[in-house]
């Protein structure tokens, strides 16, 4: 089978965020009887299920007014094209930093690959797509980790910085706030249709174009006084 005829979406049981563990099951997994370690410098942890964790560098590193953002995001193929899959996965991870109001500064890759089913050349195309997205964001793909896995996965762990007073959290949205969508709704419908070979010709590439668009608007909104995060 040639590389051009391979459909990556057929090598995963789900697609994109559809592979996430359900919140109810995740609560069971994360439940712990151990005493919670409390760090006053950790401004955003897992309590609000935000897009990323935020750590105040003021005390720890004596860098007043600046916090570091840390996030990781990866998933299984959401499109068939390897390069586009890499771009989409990387863009999704980097955009977590923008969603918190910050600026990305570095990324490392996460790759799981079924080496006995898919060639390393295809994996290279995936990582090239991720590298392209990082370059668009103005950051280096500085390293990563890979494993032989039964299904392909790709994503990034991204580090960013943000002025501490500009951190945006899920928990700050209030009733009556106006919503501004930085991307259209319905992308999941298109990607599911593609996986099932039901996508109409006129819709080919539409979802990919949107998913590869860096969500830089998020950090722009973060600098506007009074703006809350969803």
From TrEMBL:
Keyword Magnesium on this protein?
Answer: yes
Q: Name one GO molecular function term.
A: selenide, water dikinase activity
Keywords carried by this UniProt record: ATP-binding, Kinase, Magnesium, Metal-binding, Nucleotide-binding, Selenium, Transferase
Which CDD domains does this one have?
A: SelD
Record carries keyword Nucleotide-binding: yes
GO terms for CC?
cytoplasm
Domain PurM-like N-terminal intervals = 50-162
Q: Name one GO biological process term.
A: selenocysteine biosynthetic process
Matching InterPro entries:
PurM-like_C_sf, PurM-like_N, PurM-like_N_sf, SPS/SelD
Q: Which NCBIfam families match?
A: PRK00943.1 (NF002098), selD (TIGR00476)
Annotated protein name in UniProt: PurM-like N-terminal domain-containing protein
Organism from which the protein derives:
Escherichia coli
